Every structure is written in C-alpha cells, then in structure tokens.
Amino acid sequence: MSAHDELQLVTFALDAECFALPVRVVREILDHERAFRVPNGPRHFLGLCNVRGQGVPVIDLRMRLGLPPVEPTSATRVLVVDVALGERALTLGIVVDRVFEVTAVRKDEIEAAPDIGARWASDYIDGVVRRDQSFVVIVNLARLLSEKEAADLAADVAAGLAAAPESWRAA
Amino acid sequence: MRLTIKLKLAMSFGIVIMFLCAIAGFGLYDLSKANHVLDKVIGFNSKRLERSQNLQILSLEALRAQKNLLLATSPDDAAKQVAAGDAAIKEFQSQWAELSASAPPERKAYWASVDEAFKAYLANDVNIRTKIKANDIAGATELSLGGARVTSSRLRTVLSEGSKFYIEGMEKARLESSEDYAFIRMVTLSATGAAVLIAAALALWVSMSVCNGLGRAGAVMRSVADGDLSWRAENLPSDEIGDMLGYVDTMVERLRDVVGGAAIASGNVSSGSQQLSSTSEQIAQGATEQAAAAEEASSAMEEMAANIKQNADNAAQTEKIARQSAKDAEASGEAVARAVAAMDTIAQKITIVQEIARQTDLLALNAAVEAARAGEHGKGFAVVASEVRKLAERSQAAAGEISHMSGDTVKSAKDAGDMLNRLVPDIRKTAELIAEISAACREQDIGASQINQAIQQLDQVTQQNAGASEEMSATSEELASQAEELQCSIAFFRVDDEGDRRPSAVRPQAKRSVKTHALPKQGVRTQSHATLAKKPTVQAQQERARGFALDLSMGGRDEQDRDFRESA
C-alpha cells in the first residue's frame, strides 16, 4: 500500500451520517467556541472565530447542507480548513457534530456520487466510501462553497474583521 | 194498691186496737155506771143509814138520860143527867134537821113523821122532868113507864123504819148492779171473743204472708248456699219480701256473673300459668345458655386480654426498635449526605479527567492530522497519535462512565438521603403511633378486665335469673294448681239449669287441657332435663354460681402466645 493509491481522510459526523474531508485541507481541529456573530450574514455563517490570532469565518455545515441546526455539544468541533478557491486560499472554520478520526482509504474504494437519473446539486460530493455497514461521503469544500459564496464570505470576513475586537487585529 | 207488710200490720193492729178501744170504752162506761150506783149506795144510802141509826142511838141516849134522871140520887147527878139528855136531844134535833133538809121530796113525809114522833116523845120527857123537879118521882116513873114508853117506842119504830128503807134501797142497788154486771160481762166477753178471732185471723194472714215470703227467700238462700245459682225470680209478691227476693235475684244474678267470670278467669289463670311455667323454663334454659355463653365470652376475653398484653409488650418493643431505627436512619441520612458530598467531589474530579481526556483526544486528533499531512514521515507519529487517541478515548469513556455512574450514584444517594429524610419523621411518627398503640393496649387491657368483670356480673345476674325463673316456674305451677282449686271451688256453684252440665263439661275439659298441658310439659321437662344433663343444668349453674367466679389472672401463657412472641 503506498501513499499514492491511498487517501488520508478526516471523518466527521453530521447528524447520523458520516462525512469526510481530505487531510490536506484540514489545518487544525478545535473545540467549538461560540463564534463572534457578524450581522447581516447568511444563515449558515455563524461568525468569526479566533484561531491562533487569526480571525477565521465559521460556517455551520449542517445548515449549509440543508440540515436543521442543533445546539452544540461537548463533541462539537470546528475543523479549520484551507480551501483553495481559484488562486485564493480561504481559511474557514467548519462546525461539525463530531470528528471521528484520521483514516486512510484506498482510492479504488472511492465510488462516484450516486446518480439518481436527474441533475441535482451533487457537485460537492467527491465520492462515497463504503465503511462497514454505512457510507462516508467525501465532501469537496471548494465546490460546496461556490465562487460567489466564497466572495461573500471573504467580504463578510473583511466586515467581521473590521468589527472584530482590537486584540484580534493585533494578533 | 200495694199490700205491704207494714200496711197489713197496721191494718191488723188498727182493727185490734179499735176493738180494744171499743171494749175499753164500753167497760169504762159501765164502770162509771157502777161507780154511780156505788156512790148512791155508799154516799147516800149507807151514810143516811148510818145517820139514821145515829138518830136511833141519840134517841136511845136521850131515853137513857131520862131513865137515869129518874134514878138520880143527888141533884148534881140529876143536873148531869139533864145536861146529857139535853145534849142528846139537841144533837138529835140538829141531825134530823140536816137529814130532813137533804132528804129527797118523796121522803119529806117520813121525816115529818119522825119529827112528830120525837116531838111526842119530847113532850113526855118535859113532863117527866117537870115531875122530877117537883119531886114527883112516882108520877114521873109512871109516866115514863106509861105514856112516855109509848112515844119512845113509836119513835124507835119510826126510826127503824127509816133504816129499813135504806137497807132496802141498798139491796135494790145491789140487784141492779148485779144485772148490769151480767150484761157487761156478756157484752165484753162477746166483744173480746170477736176481737180475739179477728186478731187471730189477721195474725194468721200476716204471718202466713211473711212466712211464705221468708220461706221462699230461705229456700233461695239455701239453694245459693248449696251452690245452686240457677234460681230466677218469678211471681214476686208485692211487698217488702218481694223486694227482698228481687234483691236476692239481683244478688244471685251478680253471683252468677261473678262465678262465671271467676271460672273463666281461673281457667285463663290456669292456662296462663302453664304458659308462664313453660316460658320461665325456657328462660331458665336461656339463662343457662347465657351463662355458658358468658363463660365462653369470659375465657375469650381472657385470651384477648393475654393477646392484648402480648400486643402491648410487642408494641413497646416495636416502639424501642422504631426509635433505634429512627436514630439509625438519621445516621444513615448523614452518611448518605457525606457520600453525596464525596460523590460530588468525585464527579468534579472526573470532569477534570474527562476534560483532560477530551483535550488529549483533540490533541491526538490534531497530531494525527499533522502526521497525515507529513505523509510518509509522519507515519510512526500517526501510530503514536492513534494510540494516544485510543487511550484518551478509553480514559474519556471510563471517565464518562465514572461520571455517569457517580451521577447515578449521587442521584441514588440523594434519593436515598431524601428517602431517609422522609423516613426519619415517618419512623418517628411510627414510634409515636406505636407508643399510642401501647397506651391503647394498656387501656384495652383495663377495658378487657372491666369487660371481664362485667361478664362476671352478667354471669351472676344470669344465675340469679335462672334461679328466679326456676322460682317463677314453681310459683306458676303453684298458681296453676291454685287456679285448678279455684275452678273446683267455683264448680260448686251451678250457674244454670243447663249449666249443670256446662261447668262440669268445662271443668273436665279444663282439667284435661291442664293435663294435656301438663303432660307435654312433663315431657318437655324430662327432655329439658335430658338436654340439661348434657348441658350445664340450672342447678349446676346455681351450684357454680355459689362456687364459680371468673378468674382474670388465670389466663397465663399458652401456646398461642408463642406466635405473638415470634411476630415480635
């Protein structure tokens, strides 16, 4: 088994379903903290979070994927990810219900997104890995966060930074 | 018109008295007539006869004085004789004057002849005296023996004639009165005879009527005395005896009623006393059963008293235990509280462990991420990170379990503490309640002894009742026999003609009924005796009453007590 035909994934859970992100986009895993809320943002934009002196926008993946929001628990985590949107690299905090592990899957294990015979917004799915009796959906954040949205988020981040406390900016 | 005895007697006595009055009147009339005759005889004839004879005596005295004068020897003597002669003459003359004056007219002539004869005598007497004065005694004697004698005898004859007349008159009156007497006797005798006859007839009539009535009354009385009350008044005479017979009839009727009522009443008394006897025997039996029941109740009460005492002991013990339990429960509560505090501390510590484990987990995860990102170089590190993570997860899980368990334990301990806290007052309350139960048991004990006493009294009363009912039975039997005697006594009276048979028919029936009553009663008695032989008899009861008393202290311990001890 070599590093070429394996993919390192960070698996996490949203509700009862298991999702995964490639390890290379995950910078850090943090405890959930209440985000600094930025007014006039989209519903899934929770606000800003201080990650080692850097203001990072935090989004709720559940809301983004159309799931109902839940109260954060002790297992709730924030995945700090670096998303490459074109030539820009965006650092985001993604709130997930819990983080399972860092695991490796063979690339041949990865299946394509399910085809239901019609066009649907399945672009964010890189693939589906069958694990035990369930499935793990590999999420493509770059596709999930559309161009426009990413721009909006960037604007929001700018606005949020402007409104953020002085200590943050100093950091 | 009502011919009462009074009227009859009045009539009879009136008639007799009438006769008596008539006879008495007639007798009085005749007696007055006889008295008149006697007056005439005594007051006229005999007096005049006496005076007439007195005249004779006076004439003789005058003659004797004349003769004595002739024979006088002295002048004094002569004078004395003259004086005596004068006195006699004077007396004669006065007597004559009276008689002559009072003589009836047809006798005047006689008295004139007497006067004439005396005057003749007196003339001779004067002559003689003259001669004597002249001492011519011989002439005087001659005259005295001659002419004077003629005149004096003439006077004497006349005077004796007068006496004779009166004697004859008296004889005539005697004859008349004897005739009257004969008539009066005849009339009186005949009237008396008639009166006697009529009185006898009337007396016979009255006595016949009275005797007849009294005889009827007597017969009625005798028949009543013989006990025959069948007499009824008929054809009553309309007098007092009739009234009396009417009253007697009323009396007999009342007696009939009374006797009939008494007979019925005595029959009732007899049957009633039979019933009373049987009832009192039932009462006696009932009293016996009552006494037995009272005895049973007494023994049951004794058992109960023992149970109550046992209960009281148990309750006291339970109270002690409950107090100890309360104390223990309080201690347990405190212990639980301490345990809870300890558990809280543990939980706090565990959260620290948990936090550490979580953070370790996070760190391991990040390390894994870093190792993965380092590619091939980070592989060993990834393994370490994985192991660390596993440890962290295990310690987290263990901490979670411990936390969970400690939470559960705390909850349980808190529950236990709450329960104990609730339990303590409950146990205290229980102890108090048990104390109350204990007190109640003591009171129950007292009450049980009182009940026992009461039952004892009840038993005594029952014995007395049994005795009293026995006495009552005897008394009622006595009463029955006396009622029978009364019936026999009353049977003496025959109320009616048909009643001759009726009371006798009633009597044997009554006797028979008495017997028929008596026979089953005897049977009942023997039966009751037979049953009483099994059961305690009244006599036995009474004997027991003398020597039996419920003993409250004899309850003692028995086998049943053990159960209570075990339960305690």
UniProtKB/TrEMBL annotation, chain A:
GO annotation, cellular component aspect: cytosol
GO biological processes: chemotaxis; signal transduction
Species this protein is from: Rhodoblastus acidophilus (Rhodopseudomonas acidophila)
PROSITE patterns, sorted: CHEW (PS50851)
Highest taxon, organism lineage: Bacteria
Residues covered by the CheW-like domain: 6-150
SMART domains to which the protein is assigned, alphabetical: CheW (SM00260)
Protein name (Swiss-Prot/TrEMBL): Purine-binding chemotaxis protein CheW
UniProt cross-references to CDD domains, sorted A to Z: CheW
From TrEMBL, chain B:
UniProt GO MF annotations: transmembrane signaling receptor activity
Methyl-accepting transducer domain boundaries: 265-480
CDD domains recorded: HAMP
Gene Ontology biological-process entries: chemotaxis; signal transduction
UniProt-annotated location(s): Membrane
Coiled-coil segments: 451-478
Organism superkingdom: Bacteria
A Pfam family this chain is assigned to: HAMP
Annotated transmembrane regions: 12-31
Region of interest (Disordered), ranges: 268-300, 499-541
Segments forming domain HAMP: 214-260
GO cellular component: plasma membrane
Keyword list, A-Z: Chemotaxis, Coiled coil, Membrane, Transducer, Transmembrane, Transmembrane helix
Family annotation (Gene3D superfamilies): Methyl-accepting chemotaxis protein
InterPro entries the UniProt entry points to: Chemotax_Me-accpt_rcpt, HAMP_dom, HlyB_4HB_MCP, MCP_chemotaxis, MCPsignal_dom
Family: Belongs to the methyl-accepting chemotaxis (MCP) protein family.
Name recorded for this polypeptide: Methyl-accepting chemotaxis protein
